[in-house]
Amino acid sequence: CPRVAAQAFVKALCDIRGVPYEPHWAQQFSVAYDVYVAILQQVRTLVRKGLHRDSIDWRILNNCPSCQTRVIGEKSLPVRMMVAIDRNNSLKRIAR
């Protein structure tokens, strides 16, 4: 959850809308943002439950450890693991 300076953000919104800033709007924004974050968390929880991904060990049971496990005596591959943190854009550029 990103940290937002509520007063500065509300002042910027007031400036964009062309209305004078009033101090109670920062408190109202803070409450509304907290409600928004709570709704997002509840939706995530319901989606995980609906997809049966809410158990404590779901990630451990459904990962792919084969590329991370080293077997003694087995020849290692030239590329041990290919990972992209840019939505797989860098893997598209690899020559085939």
From TrEMBL:
Name recorded for this polypeptide: CxC1-like cysteine cluster associated with KDZ transposases domain-containing protein
Organism for this UniProt entry: Dendrothele bispora (strain CBS 962.96)
Lineage, top ranks: Eukaryota, Fungi, Dikarya, Basidiomycota, Agaricomycotina
